[in-house]
Amino acid sequence: MSGNLSSPNYPFNYDNNLDCYYHITVPDGYIVKLTVLDFATEGEYSYFDYVQIYDGPDDQAFLLHKIGGTKVPIGFVYESTQRYMTIKFHTDFTGVRTGWLFNFIASTPNATAYFNATLGTISSPNYPSFYPNSFLQFYKIVVPETKIVLVEVMDFVTEPSYDYLRIIDGNNATDISHTLGLLSGNLTGNGSMPMTFYSTQSIVSLLFYTDHSVNRTGWTLNFRTAPKLN
């Protein structure tokens, strides 16, 4: 499944005072990969006219990126973590350009990394060297049903806001309503480490996402079982 999306009137100038929404849905088991083919909005680096890309079915989902101006590199790729992606295009009352053209495809995510053990260590790719850009990985910790999972994050340094680790209580890594922690930025540098999270069940899911630019040394965490609370 694939297709193109464009701003109104593209490749001619779009109108002022727009708020346009585009909703992409791909089949179960796939994610959305969005590639910038052309981009020009008002200003050079400005956000007077801009595109917001959301990881989910509407604009209440996690904001993956906000882009605007004429310096957005062609070929940049944005990936959802689920089968939905929402794009919002906003223009103000003055100044127009030719707009933008995106291509989207249904893409297969990396295979989930399973950890069926009572204790262990998980780290970002290449840790303690820099992790890759444009990376999406799911991890799953599974312990005996009579136990819960204790996760202790020992070191954490990512690009603030855009590269993150989400820790989910349960089997569904995209169910943000069961988020135990959403970590991003230099948490080691600000003295937040270590950080401890407890599940309420025998499975914890992790989702590590990085965008197309800027990388850091990443993260490492330990996990072990703990008694279930009655």
Automatic annotation (TrEMBL):
Transmembrane segments: none annotated. CDD domains: CUB (cd00041). It holds the Pfam family CUB. PROSITE patterns: CUB. Residues 1-107, 111-226 form the CUB domain. The keyword Repeat applies. Keywords: Disulfide bond, Repeat. InterPro entries: CUB_dom (IPR000859), Sperma_CUB_dom_sf (IPR035914). This is CUB domain-containing protein.
